[in-house]
Amino acid sequence: MLVLGLDVGEARTGLAEADTSAGVAVPVGALERAGDDGAHADAVLAEAFRRGAGLLVVGMPLSMSGRPGPQAQRIEAFSALLRSRGALPVETVDERLSTVEAGRRIQESAGGRRSKRGSKPTQRGALDAAAAAVLLQSWLDRRR
């Protein structure tokens, strides 16, 4: 089954996908935020159906103590919206430090060179997609 991982942010949502039989998450891009939560949920679902996803895994930004804060409540509401609008199941996974880990991996793949992180929209989208891959890989690893 193809799973689409989502790192939902204020400006865009990072996307990653994985086939559960292969068990490896791959960043595939980012969706710029399109209007309100309803319009953005529709855009996410359209992308999921276009890719043939059978499940959505949404990163839940818990605090370092593991408790949900205001951002986690916003993501939970967005996840509920996805569930109510689509025919796809939606699961959440703890995404603490996924963006930090994604940034570290991007830097390593660039041979350790530091770039001006976030200086261009495409770079920010790449970081969001990499963060989605980190959280989706975490979800896959927990399933084993």
Write the layout of secondary structure elements.
Elements: E1 2-8, E2 12-19, E3 26-32, H1 37-51, E4 55-60, H2 70-85, E5 90-94, H3 98-109, H4 121-143
Parallel strand pairs: 1-4, 4-5
Antiparallel strand pairs: 1-2, 2-3
Features:
five-stranded mixed sheet, 144 residues
Notes on the protein architecture:
The chain contains four helices and five strands, in the order E-E-E-H-E-H-E-H-H. It has 144 residues and is of the alpha/beta class. A five-stranded mixed beta sheet has the order 3-2-1-4-5, sandwiched between helices. Helix 1 packs across helix 2 and helix 3 packs across helix 4. The chain is globular, with a radius of gyration of 14 Å. The two termini are 15 Å apart. The mean pLDDT is 86.
The count of helical stretches stands at: 4
Q: What do the pLDDT scores average to?
A: 86
Characterize the main sheet: 5 strands, mixed
Strand percentage, roughly?
Answer: 15-25%
Total strands: the figure is 5
Question: Can you list the strand order of the major beta sheet?
Answer: 3-2-1-4-5
| Gap between N and C termini | 15 Å
Q: Could you estimate the helical fraction of the residues in percent?
A: 40-55%
Question: Spans with pLDDT under 50 lasting ≥5 residues?
Answer: none
Category by helix and strand content: alpha/beta
> What is the 3D shape?
globular
What is the C-alpha radius of gyration, as a whole number of Å?
A: 14 Å
What is the chain-wise order of helices and strands? EEEHEHEHH
